[in-house]
Design goal:
Blueprint lengths: L2 H16 L5 H17 L4 H17 L8 H16 L15 E6 L6 H14 L4 E6 L4 H14 L2 E3 L7 H15 L3 E6 L7 H14 L3 E7 L4 H13 L4 E5 L8 H10 L3 E5 L7 E3 L2 H9 L2 H13 L2 H12 L5 H13 L3 H6 L9 H23 L3 H5 L6 H11 L3 H32 L2
Parallel strand pairs: 1-4, 1-5, 2-3, 2-4, 5-6, 6-7
Antiparallel strand pairs: 7-8
Bound molecules: guanosine-5'-diphosphate and magnesium ion.
Length: about 450
């Protein structure tokens, strides 16, 4: 359902990634397009405007990491804000504490309350919980029957009203029964209306007071778009909610409801319904959904890895190296340690576009070789004295033999390392000046 939004955002980023360096103007243009894409996806106007303002502030306020491009960094900021908009970390039902944990489902007619009750019962039963479904929709006799059949299908217990029993009397009796048997979870289905009206609100308020559930969850049909926001807002105002479930996310709705509803309902989306079958229920993971919408999960994790690894010290160290005329073996070692912090070579490479086309066995072989070589180089350098690391010209035949013994290698391996090192040293000298200029340009 986020296909359209996803396509427009990816178009914006494709352009952005093309730039070697970004100007404030580039970023502003891109963010204007991001805002348009959000509005087209039915995201609330105010929400979209605040979203873009926050991303812009972040873009201008942070320096671009050396190991990523400015475009990649912007994508990361958009991703992070998208995760926030979708509610931050994943949230769960509160099923702990005194048994049974009570869950009341609320919502309009046709939103999917009864179906979702059965889906949840199925999920929790699979997790080893004992569940009872309670039919509190006494408006239509068929509704009680529907839930009873579903309870049978799922294989969980069921409590329904006696003929002629009113909602209040039934609610109290069902609650006593649920508490005496001490199921792990008691899941209460309720009656809806076509629209939110005073009568419905009053009835649900009373039911909630009787049941006193720890979870009062609004079931919302995502296909009704912006109208879902109005419903969520009213429920939030009248009946305190603890969470939301969005249903029919498998349809062709534009997705704006999912992106703005938590903003108005002030509570998290817990689950999503993605089809009519009982297994079509998915937990709501803001980060995964954001990555899916952007279609750029790889870039996001690449930037995250770079952020984790490059701390202030290392930046300072890198700059010091650039200022120095020559690279020493100690710098060489520090660089290798930084590479290690970034993760194994193979996991880094996997993230780069295009690598997927290299046959896996070829890739694997190359990876194994280069990681081996890195380990060998590290143990050689570690076997040198600090003085030798700074002045490799001191390394005569006898010193080399000592180092070979200490590192479990041979003199040839040491010579290879020294040759490689001299080549990097020459390259560094050439690049030094250029790189200093580039580091200035990359900040915008
Ligand atoms: P209630 O009135 O709120 O109890 O709604 P129901 O549970 O009876 O569901 C109304 C209709 O929506 C039924 O036909 C369900 O099969 C359908 N439905 C519920 N959830 C979903 C969903 O996630 N995706 C789709 N495609 N249909 C759903
Ligand atoms: Mg129902």
């Amino acid at each position: 359902m986020f296909d359209k939004l996803s396509a427009s955002l990816q178009k914006v980023f494709k352009n952005l990634r093309g730039y070697g360096k970004l100007t404030e103007r580039n970023v502003q243009d891109a963010l204007r397009e991001v805002r348009m894409a959000l509005l087209e996806a039915d995201v609330n106007f105010q929400v979209a405007r605040e979203f873009v303002a926050r991303v812009q502030a972040k873009c201008l306020g942070t320096e671009v990491l050396d190991s990523v491009t400015p475009g990649q960094q912007v994508i990361k900021h958009v991703h992070d804000e998208l995760v926030e908009l979708l509610g931050g970390g994943a949230r769960e039902f509160d099923l702990g504490g005194k048994r049974p944990a009570k869950v009341l489902l609320l919502g309009l007619n046709g939103a999917g309350k009864t179906t979702t009750a059965a889906k949840l019962a199925r999920l929790w039963k699979k997790q080893g919980r004992r569940v009872v479904l309670v039919a509190c929709d006494l408006k239509r006799p068929a509704a009680v029957e529907q839930l009873k059949i579903l309870a049978g299908q799922v294989g969980v217990d069921f409590i329904g009203p006696q003929p002629g029993e009113g909602l209040h009397a039934f609610g109290r009796r069902a609650l006593r029964e649920a508490e005496s048997v001490a199921w792990d979870v008691a899941l209460f289905d309720s009656a809806g209306r076509l629209q939110v009206d005073a009568e419905l609100v009053q009835e649900l308020k009373e039911l909630k007071e009787i049941l006193d559930p720890r979870n009062a969850v609004l079931v919302l049909d995502a296909a009704i778009g912006q109208e879902a926001l109005a419903v969520a807002e009213t429920f939030h105002r009248e009946i305190e909610l603890t969470g939301l479930i969005l249903t029919k996310l498998d349809g062709d709705a534009r997705g704006g409801a999912a992106l703005s509803v938590q903003h108005v309902a002030k509570c998290p989306i817990l689950m999503t319904g993605v089809g009519e079958r009982l297994e079509d229920l998915e937990p709501f993971h803001p980060d995964r959904l954001a990555s899916r919408i952007l279609g750029m999960g790889d870039i996001v994790s690449l930037v995250e890895k770079a952020q984790e690894a490059v701390d202030e010290d290392m930046l300072a160290q890198a700059e010091a190296t650039l200022r120095k005329k020559a690279l020493t073996l100690e710098d060489f070692l520090a660089q290798m340690q930084q590479m290690k912090k970034l993760g194994s070579m193979s996991s880094l490479l996997e993230m780069l576009p295009g690598v997927g086309q290299i046959p896996p066995d070829v890739r694997e072989q190359a990876m194994v070789e280069s990681e081996k070589e890195m380990k060998r180089a590290e143990s050689i350098i570690r076997s040198m004295t600090p003085k030798e690391r700074r002045h490799p010209e001191l390394l005569d035949a006898s010193r080399k033999r000592r180092i070979a013994r200490g590192s479990g290698t041979d003199v040839t391996a040491i010579n290879t390392l020294l040759n490689n090192f001299r080549r990097s040293q020459q390259m560094m000298q050439k690049m030094g000046k250029m790189q200093k200029k580039m580091m200035k340009l990359k900040r915008f």
